[in-house]
Amino acid sequence: MTSPATAGPAPVAGATAAGHRGRSGSRPAVVAQDMRKAFITAVTSALDTDPRVAVVLADISADRFTTAATRHPDRVLNVGIREQLMIGLAGGLALTGMRPVVHSYAPFLIERPFEQLKLDLGHQGAGALLASVGASYDSPEMGRTHMAPGDVALLDTLPNWTVHVPGHVTEVNKLLPAALVGDDPVYLRLTTRGNTAARPVGQGLVTVRAGSPRCLGVVVAVGPMLDRVLAATSELDVTVLYTATPRPFDRAGLNAAVAAAGQADVVLVEPYLAATSAHEVTAALADRRHRQLCLGVSRDSELRAYGTPHEHDRAHGLDVDGIAAAAREFFLV
Amino acid sequence: MATTLSRYADLPALIGLMTGDDKHQAATESTLDALWVLYDSVLNISPDRADDPGRDRLLLSKGHGPAAYYAVLAAKGFLSVTDLRSWATFASPLGHHPDRVLVPGAEISSGSLGHGLGLGVGTALGLRAQGRRIPRVVVLLGDGELDEGSNHEAIVTAGRLSLDNLTAVVVDNRSASLGWPHGIAHRFEVEGWKTRTVSGRDHTALHEALTGPHAQRPLAVVARATPKGRAA
């Protein structure tokens, strides 16, 4: 494993304050976010106030917890590059009543120790807050080893997980207090690339733009995809819904929005593996004939490319132009 | 609950209530004595204190062949004889691998090898973080199970962190396919553990090994058992 254990977040190529501009529009589509810093600040503070909180690390970000480790040596635990132990240890902490906060790069947090997530947390009836960085391809120059577009789909094979995919750093701060208490399994998927503005979180699907009663359908944007979805659908009569918490999925909210739309046609735009939430849409709309289009990171082949996140967005059809083209074709306009 | 089958001599009869797990017979036989000594004279644990945060904890990492484990739990009053009779049936709390949510007294669910020691490290650290210095965390493993790399992550870390409230009991019935040159204890010693190797049948030796001093260091007790595949 090679990872920038001590490096700060790499400058996000293509994610500037001005953001990307769609070919036809002028709205920003990707805005840099320092969610890792917000997470570390909030958890460092929680260590001071909540004796249940314990941080478990496998070298990643350990340099950013040094002050906290000095103050709380028994509750900031860096096990070195040992991801299986990182999760097993968290399970043991939870069995004694602690609230483990486990943090690493997404592939090393979710994929490498997956059986530990299944058994050392789930099967024990234990929970933890897992917080990842790297997302699907925040640092594509590091290659496939540091990409985890399948993380949410993988967690979806296990019951009871809450999954947060915030699209703005302010949302991270709003989601963390509830995630840091309790005993439930929670996954917080942090990214360096998000939206211009924070949206309401913790209340299911939020209507960002309401279509007319005869509108073409509903577009669901998860986390960092919202600004791109808004730009891509700006000239379409659709309802745009947003959530930073795709699990549990707000089935009732989607059902109601589709019932109010002109057609039961749904586009789902997720920043991870395409169609990860397709089964949720299916369950939400089991009472009606419907169509759905799922946009996300391609499942068809492994993209062997480095470069910038924006180039990967384009390759997967997840930039403004790609989403716009797919949506127009789906809605037959 | 009160039980009349509460002696070491009763364990074969209790095990006899659980049939149909012949594949794991060797594991059952090899762990029986270590489990008895632990529950009978080492661990500070009883059914009425099963949720006491100050209790000692036995984590059965070697989750296959749990008939001996269930028998000891029954002899100590955690389980009923009725539970044993119905084992592995749909509504039974007892299966061929234990589930902590279903089995009274079971600290962890196990079966897939190589998970107990990591959970034990976390449990020991959780107790340490809460200032609980008294409870012991004992993890029972097999020598074959040590093939799993996850154990080595835990062995190294427990040694470095001087987890003196953690004990590993490794039942060695020489089932590791590729063996452990220089012996199992060596693997723990080089990482900073105090180690003792004793006969897994000798109750006095097991007791002394489990209760002897191991200042500032985690303790590994290797309990030699009849090699798998040979008659006892």
UniProtKB/TrEMBL annotation, chain A:
Region annotated Disordered, chain positions: 1-29
CDD domains in alphabetical order: TPP_PYR_DXS_TK_like
Family annotation (Pfam families): Transket_pyr (PF02779)
InterPro entries linked to this entry: PDH/Transketolase (IPR051157), THDP-binding (IPR029061), Transketo_C/PFOR_II (IPR009014), Transketolase-like_Pyr-bd (IPR005475)
Signal peptide: none
Skewed-composition ranges (Low complexity): 1-19
Residue span(s) of domain Transketolase-like pyrimidine-binding: 33-198
Protein's recorded name: Transketolase
Species, as recorded: Salinactinospora qingdaonensis
Automatic annotation (TrEMBL), chain B:
Stretches assigned to the Transketolase N-terminal domain: 26-218
Pfam families named among the record's database cross-references: Transketolase_N
Gene3D superfamilies with a match to the protein in the record: 3.40.50.970
Name the record gives this protein: Thiamine pyrophosphate-dependent enzyme
Organism: Salinactinospora qingdaonensis
